[in-house]
Amino acid sequence: MAVSAFDLLDLDSLLTDEERDVRALVRRVADDRVRPYVADWYERGEVPVRDLALEFGKLGLLGMHLKGYGCAGSSAVAYGLACLEMEAADSGVRSLISVQGSLAMYAIWRYGSEEQKQCWLPGMAAGELIGCFGLTEPDHGSDPAAMATRARRDGADWILTGGKMWITNAPVADVAVIWARAEEGVVGFAVPTDTPGFAAREVRHKMSLRASATGEITLDEVRLPEAARLPDARGLKAPLSCLTEARFGIVWGSLGAARDCLDTAIAYAGSREQFGRPIAGFQLTQAKFADMALELQKGYLLAMHLGRRHDAVGLRPEQVSAGKLNNVREAIAIARQCRTILGANGVSGEYPIMRHANNLESVLTYEGTSEIHQLVLGQQLTGLSAFAG
């Protein structure tokens, strides 16, 4: 009798009843609200962000790991499971949840004033307001310390000038968390997107994360009051801590894409006959399945360990780097291998595997490329930084 990959090691036994309930809820939402439509969204390069945000907000999925201000206050493991189940449907839709909760909301929750939190977080938790996180620039991706966006004082106000690129949710956002360099160092702002001088242009012709709204932000002498500055954000460590928060969700989410690819390939191999029998019965196919299932389970155990530590004592950035590096790298390898099992059908939009593989190309890069995470781990192992030479 066939079992699912996670059943091989009885990994469900690691979860609490509450965590299983969260997983079941998000899986049901993904099955009902995302899976039937996502292939069409992906093909058209459009996604109903606001409709989805409202539905996710009603279920408490936005900023679900934060406390107060309408947020659910769930455990890190529960949040990770939510990311896994949503990314099993699509990485781009999962990124809506991650950017909203772990980047935009987290930045305001962690570094904002009480007035900013009261102004933005309840509406964002409900999905009534959409947020984005502007750190990456056209010429500065892996090196945010070199950002060109500037913030200068003008009397009691601030003036922002510059641009951000590859910003998820930017085309539909109500508030943008923008990071800029000022005389005192890196500072952050909660910028209402209807502020004069702020513009967001949707990035078109993407071959990956097509079921996600991605934008380029232009800041043309955007005037903001002091009340828009995040008062507790001092230096580059502030935005980097937000990236660490978001990377944790990716550690889990990437496993969802990999699981969906493997489930699809196993089901396909069981019904696809060549040489008089199902291809699932061939030794080479079973060897592929065995190797992929092992990597998937090892990635899950790594994610679970990091999740339990996150809930108990917190995580160091390099620990999250280890999870992101391993799990995304293995997830994309699983997607590519599963594509080979489906043969030519593997590139068809009728099946989710090529869509997952294309999406994972972006997941491999954003929130820190594999090379950046290798250097983070290398610095921890050697005590020497290889980032500047």
Your description of this structure?
The protein has 389 residues and is of the alpha+beta class. It contains ten helices and eleven strands. The protein folds into three domains: 5-125, Acyl-CoA dehydrogenase/oxidase, N-terminal domain (Butyryl-Coa Dehydrogenase, subunit A, domain 1, Orthogonal Bundle); 131-228, Butyryl-CoA Dehydrogenase, subunit A, domain 2, CATH 2.40.110; 237-382, Butyryl-CoA Dehydrogenase, subunit A, domain 3 (Up-down Bundle), CATH 1.20.140. The strands form four sheets. It has a four-stranded antiparallel beta sheet, covered by helices on one side. A hairpin with a 2-residue loop joins β6 and β7.
Shape, principal axes of CA atoms: globular
As an assembly, this protein is single chain
The SS-based structural class is alpha+beta
CATH class of the largest domain: Mainly Alpha
Structural domain tally: 3
What is the correct CATH architecture of the largest domain?
Up-down Bundle
Rg, Å, rounded: 21 Å
What do we call the CATH topology of the largest domain? Butyryl-CoA Dehydrogenase, subunit A, domain 3
Give the CATH superfamily of the largest domain. Answer: Butyryl-CoA Dehydrogenase, subunit A, domain 3
Q: How much strand?
A: 15-25%
Number of strands: 11
Provide the residue-averaged pLDDT: 96
Helix and strand run: HHEEHHHEEEEEEEHEEHHHH
The share of residues in helices is: 40-55%
Number of helices: 10
GO molecular function, one term: fatty-acyl-CoA binding
Domain Acyl-CoA oxidase/dehydrogenase middle: 132-222
Protein name: Glutaryl-CoA dehydrogenase
Cofactor: FAD
